[in-house]
Recover the amino acids of this structure.
């Protein structure tokens, strides 16, 4: 594979999943980790992604006020956010995990809507501060510099003490058989705690994530109540989920 083709593959993967690992990309492309490390260094230098320890993150994912040009599939994520708004009612308590799709949902929340919103995501908390009628409760703990969300025991303990109406659980990968998966073990523990602290779990995800898997499992699809994509519910790509007792929007 030519270097230009590797670069395009890397940019596509980091766009879809927000974050990638050197070892995973090297395995998938059947090249050395050093080769991918050099590729990521070049893409970082040309400001197409951000190099982090062990991999890379997208520029939109690693920015407090990301510009539209830096967010992968912003139009699709905006469509998902619009659908998600229909699930939220005045006076509810909601939980937003991290991710650019949830960041778009936070941006679109109507200013007159009265909500209490818990989040471990620093960018989402900052976004919500501009909404006068939304009470923002930040789930504190050790802050991950890569994902910009809190992780660890303090955050998980705080989640164990709440029960929200809806959790909008950002999804790295979703598969009808393998469920929801991530490649960061500490984020997996946070998302497990979010599920346990919620009466309803909503998985907003762009269709490119459907059928993909990562190394650590968060939960089975049966633990998700609603899946939201930019597709129409009858799209063939969603057929595998239609007999799994999950509402598709």
């Amino acid at each position: 594979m030519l270097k230009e083709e590797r670069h395009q593959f890397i940019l596509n993967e980091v766009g879809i999943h927000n974050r990638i690992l050197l070892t995973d990309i090297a395995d998938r492309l059947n090249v050395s980790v050093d080769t991918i490390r050099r590729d990521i260094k070049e893409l970082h230098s040309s400001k197409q992604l951000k190099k982090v320890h062990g991999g890379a993150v997208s520029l939109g994912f690693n920015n407090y006020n990301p510009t539209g040009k830096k967010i992968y599939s912003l139009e699709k994520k905006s469509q998902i956010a619009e659908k998600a708004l229909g699930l939220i009612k005045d006076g509810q308590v909601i939980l937003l995990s991290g991710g650019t799709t949830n960041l778009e949902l936070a941006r679109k929340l109507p200013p007159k809507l009265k909500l209490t919103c818990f989040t471990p995501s620093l960018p989402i908390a900052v976004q919500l501060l501009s909404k006068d009628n939304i009470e923002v409760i930040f789930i504190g703990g050790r802050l991950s510099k890569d994902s910009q969300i809190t992780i660890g025991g303090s955050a998980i303990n705080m989640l164990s003490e709440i029960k929200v109406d809806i959790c909008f659980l950002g999804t790295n990968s979703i598969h009808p058989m393998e469920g929801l998966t991530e490649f960061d073990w500490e984020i997996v523990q946070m998302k497990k705690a979010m599920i346990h602290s919620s009466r309803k779990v909503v998985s907003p995800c762009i269709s490119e994530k459907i059928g993909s898997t990562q190394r650590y499992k968060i939960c089975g699809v049966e633990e998700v109540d609603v899946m939201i994509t930019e597709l129409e519910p009858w799209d063939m790509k969603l057929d595998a989920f239609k007999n799994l007792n999950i509402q598709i929007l």
Summary: The two ends are 38 Å apart (CA to CA).
